[in-house]
């Protein structure tokens, strides 16, 4: 590779064949380049209508914004194949930073487009991209790369998601995914996964679409609540979906809370039971500092246990 | 020959397996491309390129010699009442492809392994056959495979059934979803050889039990063997909660007792759909469009997903009521992988250890 000074205008930024990211956030680099210049030269391939950028999109865009008339680049000859150039770009990226899921999907797509066989991509590259090295995953990623839904890719670039959750998410239609993205972004990784899995269960069980689920009165009440901050809205939606997926379990949870309140269960005593109601064993624990306090606690518990409603805590059938 | 309509495409043979007569028998009957392999990891490569490696693996048979024992205690679950079953691990894997089958996640190797050293199998079985102290103890080949699905290839079930005709107490169960009873039609019935069928609601059979015989064919096969005097058993496992479950299970139960006399039935087991946490990976990869996995299931303290317990108890109560209505009060019923509470609430009894199960399964008279 040869080090040269070129004008940013010599780079054909329309040609994104080697670009992995769906979003290029170059703003943090602008002040760094303003102060210290371009420390690591981008890589370009010569030829055709200007140079094709192989790696260094953030650097070049930052230079462009700063109005620099020249920047240092490493050039590779025009006869270097797309695949070879892309492999250099990939190596540079893989050694410098963790790639987002969107970028890894794009990498699989480009490797295939530049002529590598599926078997080679699965065996050599998917493990390096931290992707499961299986035929079915390869096909899935390739489909995603080919269809390239920019909104989904932006979401996957900015948000972490498990592969299982992504496979479900990808099975929803584009407009339906768009309904979900703003809320999913605000949830934790595990809550995001839970929402997607719960949605899938409701869709299959009730034969509904995401749009139909979100059009229900309960969902609309949450989505249209003006005063509710976005993060709380996302949490409320997640909780509502959980109730929809587990109607019996959540109604029993609520009933236990209500019954404890009704019988006046003493706050100082902790009543524990299996949260899934699988096991029928209860336990009570409380602390005390004297024999008198111990007796007082026992008496309060006894008074509660003598109420007829106490028996209802032990209900086991529907 | 492709037995019972299954299409096997390749036979792998471990060198140690080559000298056994069963290997020769399978090779002669199957007549598919063969490969001798020292390391079964080669088989993984064979299926790796498939979009559905588990389905692909069902087309592969591997003939081998087991490293360990042939007979093991049935792996039950913690906190549930085990029935003291022994699993005969002579064939691992099954050519059928039931969506809910735990073997998809349970078996280390997804292909069908036939262990061919029948002499060792015989010697492992001998203590069970010879001991009168094992009265009522059951063992069978239908846990890690279907007992009869490969019978046209191996003849193993017929051979083992003949061995157990001389049992002094232990009971050999052939559990199947096929209707392949032809080899047993001329066999002398024995109280120590029980033919059993996994049954399910028509919708579940049709939609979830790929490669299994139709429900009516299974019932007719059972009825035929019962008519010839063979004891039979039935397993309603997994019972699945779906729209119309009560009506459909009632249909199959009433049909069962119209075809099979209650007196021929040695046991009926019940178990609702359940699966281990790691099975979600299988559901996700292979069955994520199957609604049966998305009913209200919760994870229990043994790490298995089951229907929310009050729902489960309701399902069991209804099924038991149906069995008693159509089959009478004397049908021996037991649960697979259920806890004391389920036994007490639904069956109004609770077995006290392996001995009480022995009494439960001991042939009458």
What's the structural blueprint in terms of helices and strands?
The complex is a heterodimer of chains A (318) and B (365).
Chain A lengths: L1 E5 L20 H10 L6 E3 L6 E4 L1 H10 L4 E6 L5 H15 L4 H13 L4 H8 L9 H13 L2 H9 L4 H9 L2 H11 L4 H18 L3 H5 L2 H7 L6 H16 L1 H16 L7 E4 L8 E4 L5 H15 L13
Parallel strand pairs in A: 2-4
Antiparallel strand pairs in A: 1-4, 2-3, 5-6
Chain B lengths: L9 E4 L7 H10 L3 E3 L4 H8 L4 H5 L2 E5 L6 E3 L12 E3 L2 E2 L4 E2 L4 H4 L5 E4 L2 H13 L7 E3 L10 H4 L1 H9 L6 E6 L16 E6 L3 H7 E2 L4 H13 L4 E8 L5 H15 L5 E8 L1 E3 L2 H8 L10 E3 L4 E4 L1 H19 L5 E3 L4 H8 L5 H9 L4
Parallel strand pairs in B: 1-2, 1-3, 3-8, 5-9, 9-10, 10-11, 11-13, 13-14, 14-18
Antiparallel strand pairs in B: 4-5, 6-8, 7-12, 15-17, 16-17
The radius of gyration of chain B is 20 Å
Category from helices, strands and their pairing of chain A? alpha+beta
Parts with pLDDT < 50 across at least 5 consecutive residues of chain B: none
Strand order of the largest sheet of chain B: 4-5-9-10-11-13-14-18
Percentage of residues in strands of chain A: 5-15%
The total count of helices of chain B amounts to 14
Give the strand content of chain B.
15-25%
Q: Tally of extended strands of chain A?
A: 6
Largest sheet of chain B: 8 strands, mixed
How many runs of DSSP E, i.e. beta strands of chain B? Answer: 18
Intertermini distance of chain A: 74 Å
The greatest inter-chain interface is formed by: A-B, 28 and 32 residues
**Can you count the helices of chain A?**
15
Uncertain segments of chain A of ≥5 residues (pLDDT<50)?
A: none
Label the overall shape of chain B: globular
What is the rounded distance between the termini of chain B?
43 Å
Radius of gyration of chain A: 29 Å
The overall average pLDDT of chain B, rounded, is: 94
SS content category of chain B: alpha/beta
């Amino acid at each position: 590779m040869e080090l040269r000074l070129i004008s940013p205008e010599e780079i054909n930024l329309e040609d994104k064949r080697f670009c992995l990211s769906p979003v290029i956030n170059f703003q943090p680099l602008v002040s760094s380049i303003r102060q210290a210049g371009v420390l690591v030269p981008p890589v370009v391939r010569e030829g055709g209508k200007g140079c094709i950028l192989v790696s260094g999109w953030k650097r070049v865009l930052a230079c462009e914004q700063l109005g620099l008339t020249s920047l240092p680049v490493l050039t590779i000859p025009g006869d270097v194949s797309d695949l070879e150039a892309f492999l250099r770009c990939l190596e540079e990226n893989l050694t410098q930073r963790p790639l987002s899921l969107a970028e890894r999907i794009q990498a699989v797509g480009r490797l295939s487009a530049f002529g590598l066989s599926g078997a080679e991509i699965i065996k050599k590259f998917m493990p390096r991209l931290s992707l499961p090295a299986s035929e079915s995953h390869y096909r899935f990623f390739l489909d995603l790369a080919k269809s390239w839904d920019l909104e989904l890719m932006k979401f996957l670039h900015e948000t972490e998601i498990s592969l299982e959750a992504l496979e479900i998410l990808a099975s929803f239609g584009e407009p339906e995914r768009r309904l979900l993205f703003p809320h999913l972004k605000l949830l934790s990784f595990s809550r995001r996964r839970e929402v997607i899995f719960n949605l899938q269960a409701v869709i299959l069980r009730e034969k509904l679409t995401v749009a139909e689920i979100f059009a229900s009165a309960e969902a609309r009440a949450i989505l249209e609540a003006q005063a509710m901050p976005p993060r709380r809205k996302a949490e409320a939606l997640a909780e509502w979906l959980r109730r929809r997926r587990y109607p019996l379990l959540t109604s029993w949870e609520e009933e236990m809370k209500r019954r404890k309140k009704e019988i006046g269960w003493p706050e100082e005593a902790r009543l524990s039971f299996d949260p899934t109601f699988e096991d029928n064993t209860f336990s009570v624990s409380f602390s005390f500092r004297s024999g008198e306090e111990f007796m007082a606690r026992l008496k309060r518990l006894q008074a509660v246990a003598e109420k007829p409603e106490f028996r209802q805590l032990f209900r086991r059938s529907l | 020959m492709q037995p019972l309509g299954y299409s096997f495409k390749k036979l792998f043979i471990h060198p140690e397996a080559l000298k056994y007569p069963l290997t020769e028998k399978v090779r002669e009957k199957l007549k598919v491309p063969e490969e001798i392999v020292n390391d079964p990891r080669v088989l993984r490569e064979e299926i790796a390129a498939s979009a559905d490696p588990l389905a692909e693996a069902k087309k592969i048979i591997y003939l081998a010699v087991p490293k360990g024992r042939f007979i093991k205690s049935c792996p039950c679950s913690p906190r549930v009442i085990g029935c003291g079953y022994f699993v005969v691990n002579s064939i691992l894997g099954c050519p059928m492809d039931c969506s809910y089958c735990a073997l998809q996640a349970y078996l280390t190797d997804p292909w069908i392994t036939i262990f061919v050293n029948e002499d060792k199998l015989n010697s492992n079985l001998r203590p069970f056959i010879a001991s009168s102290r094992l009265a009522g103890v059951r063992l069978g080949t239908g846990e890690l495979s279907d007992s009869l699905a490969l019978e046209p290839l191996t003849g193993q079930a017929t051979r083992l059934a003949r061995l157990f005709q001389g049992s002094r107490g232990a009971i050999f169960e052939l559990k199947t979803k096929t209707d392949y009873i032809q080899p047993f039609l001329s066999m002398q019935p024995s109280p120590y050889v029980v033919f059993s069928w996994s049954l399910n609601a028509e919708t579940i059979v049709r939609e979830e039990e790929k490669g299994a015989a139709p429900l009516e064919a299974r019932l007719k096969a059972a009825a035929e063997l019962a008519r010839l005097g063979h004891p039979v058993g039935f397993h309603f496992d997994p019972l699945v909660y779906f729209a119309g479950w009560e009506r459909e299970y009632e249909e199959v139960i009433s049909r069962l007792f119209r075809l099979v006399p209650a007196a021929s039935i040695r046991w009926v087991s019940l178990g609702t759909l359940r699966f281990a946490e790691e099975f979600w990976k299988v559901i996700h990869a292979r069955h994520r469009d199957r609604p049966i996995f998305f009913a209200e299931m919760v994870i229990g303290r043994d790490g298995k997903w089951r229907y929310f317990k009050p729902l489960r108890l309701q399902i069991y109560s209804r099924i038991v009521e149906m069995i008693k209505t159509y089959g009478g009060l004397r049908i021996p019923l037991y649960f697979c992988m259920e806890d004391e509470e389920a036994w007490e609430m639904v069956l109004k009894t609770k077995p006290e250890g392996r001995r009480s199960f022995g009494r439960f399964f001991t042939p009458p008279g």
